[in-house]
Here is the input.
Amino acid sequence: MKKISPKIVAMTRSHIPACSDIVASSEPWKSLRETVDFLPSIKRKQAFVALIEGAVAGFVVFTQEPVFARGGYLRAIGVAPAIRGFGIGKFLMDFAEKATAKHAPNFFLCVSSFNRAAQAFYRKNGYKKVGKIDGLIRKGASEYIYWKKLR
Ligand SMILES: CC(C)(COP(=O)(O)OP(=O)(O)OC[C@H]1O[C@@H](n2cnc3c(N)ncnc32)[C@H](O)[C@@H]1OP(=O)(O)O)[C@@H](O)C(=O)NCCC(=O)NCCS
Here is the structure.
């Protein structure tokens, strides 16, 4: 499949509606009935969007500084449903990993046990499941901890 190279810029308030639309139509947030409050992450300069011809194609929110076990932390990533599978998620992950690698040798993330598509995506991008927290967010589900050594 053809890969697309978007432009990545810092998220601003004007991007929030498009990012919230992605959240509203995507797992795990749909099942968890959760929204993402992007504003604090924008203020901390931890939120970025991928733009294609000026339109929001996806977002990534992450902490570059080592916050846990010498690692940064990926808080959230999402790509607009209609344009998944074209490499935009990987492009966003590469961006987050490169930025984090300047500050920390590892990168961690959590993914819900029922979000199998995201787990496949993370495994493809070199992440390993290293832990599990049962019932953290939803009874009967687990949060898996994934880890990648960046350097
Ligand atoms: C997970 C997500 C960000 C991936 O974005 P994407 O743009 O579709 O992913 P890419 O096209 O960059 O895929 C990168 C690699 O992962 C693989 N991959 C992506 N989605 C996959 C899936 N559902 N099943 C298996 N492999 C998958 C691709 O095949 C690709 O591998 P390749 O490089 O060998 O071709 C996107 O599906 C999404 O927004 N999901 C909903 C939100 C979510 O679950 N976020 C994570 C929890 S915070």
Remarks:
- Residues 12 and 43 are 9 Å apart (CA to CA).
- The mean pLDDT is 96.
- The longest helix spans residues 88-101.
- The first strand starts at residue 7 and ends at 10.
